[in-house]
Amino acid sequence: MTATNNKPNSVPPRQLFSPASLWQRLRSPETFIGSLLALAGSLLLAVMVPQQPADLTMPGDFVVWLSNLPQFYQQSFQTLNRLGLFQVYQTVWFRLPMAVVTLSTLIILADYLPATWQRLRAPHTPPPEAIPHPLSRFVRKTLRLTAPQSANKSTSAAVPLAELRANLQADGFTVLPDASTGSVTATRHLWRWAGPALVAAGLLTTIAGGVVQTIWGQSAEGLLTTQAETPVLLAGKSFRLTGISFDGNTPETAGPGIAHLSINRNSQSRQLQRPYRFEGWWFVPVTAQAIARVTFVKGDTAQNIDLVFKAANRSVRFVYAPENLLFELRQTAANKPAYSLKILNNDAMRITQNSENFVINGLDMRGQVTIKNRLLVRGFRLPGLALMLPGGLLMLVGLIVLTLPPPVIIRLTVITKGRGSRIKAEAETLGRHARVEEMVTRLTAPGPASEGWSDAADT
Fold this sequence. Notes:
This protein is of the alpha+beta class. The protein folds into five domains: 23-110; 125-189 and 405-455, TBP-like, CATH 3.30.2030; 194-213 and 385-404; 218-287 and 377-384, Tick-borne Encephalitis virus Glycoprotein, domain 1, CATH 2.60.98; 289-371, no CATH class. It is built from eleven helices and 20 strands. The protein has helices at residues 13-16, 19-26, 29-48, 59-67, 71-75, 77-82, 92-121, 158-170, 195-216, 385-403, 434-443; strands spanning 136-145, 174-177, 184-188, 218-225, 232-234, 237-245, 258-263, 266-271, 276-278, 281-298, 301-308, 315-320, 325-333, 338-343, 350-354, 357-361, 365-381, 408-417, 420-430, 453-455. The strands form four sheets. Strands 4, 9, 10, 11, 15, 16 and 17 form a seven-stranded antiparallel sheet that branches. Helix 3 crosses helix 7 and helix 7 (92-121) packs antiparallel against helix 9. It is elongated and about 125 Å long.
């Protein structure tokens, strides 16, 4: 006697990898959510790991970029580079989940749009004639009308049907009677069936915008310096930095920094960190930095001290060792570099300033302060923005709709058998909502005018 290990629920490998099975997997919410999480993970990697710029054309540019990386990424460069983490958008880490998300969204949209449109245009269409909606859930109840004692009479559903219609109207439903069949269709929040389709359409539009941006988008950056002899060519435009100014003179009162630029000989003033549009490009004055050279002259001896401000509106302190003096240097204006120089550890000494030159009273010492400002400007050409913005708006509207009470369609159908009859109540809603079942039970409860009306078990 031989034993067999037949598993009736197991799926043969051929059927597991069949086109129909793969199609069902791609259209499932689990695949869609899983691919979205994988895509979010790849985007998180691109944020956490510094990405190598695509415009590094010279070997020296790559060396500069690598030397500016944090120490951890420099030490782990070989391993992370083999994994493609410095160019996530060009590797399978990003492209595979993006492809799965795109394909899954297309399938979901093909499922949702016809079903959603039919429910908005013809909600009275009952299953199985109606196009099935993947997210539909049904609650069904049967109301039996007892047959009369006399054989010459038959049960009329007019009174209980009118009572059910009144219950639905009182609960805020819009009742759509169907004179041809005697059925009744009631709807509430009908337009909210569009919520899932809006999310899918918005995501697909956003992805299309990302593809357009990847193919036709451009980026560039340039470092501008005041008093530079030649302009910087950025995105085909000639940039000069004439200065940087702030609303206040101290770190406590300083407002947003303003970069004073000359673009193609047109003077413009732009706030730091704020993007603005110019001739089809978006430019962002990213970071400003001030560099100062302080020259001390005593007799025939001169000594230079070079300083870098952490920010253009910050002060910097330094020590002049030969006289054991502690100075504080603050930039007070930038269009024509001006400064404030103070001695902190000797109240008896005063400094007289005249333009860039200064004299220390009480010492046979004079000097000069020269301040230059540097500004990093980034430029972006964003053709995909025209699709990404409406796509994001569609997704936001769809997600808001999904948080609202769900749409409900209740169909009442009279079924006559012999002298007796019954009313079939069917509620269709979006997703799983326990309150819909309670609502159907409440609305179909027998009323005082419903003689011979009994509530049957759910079907």
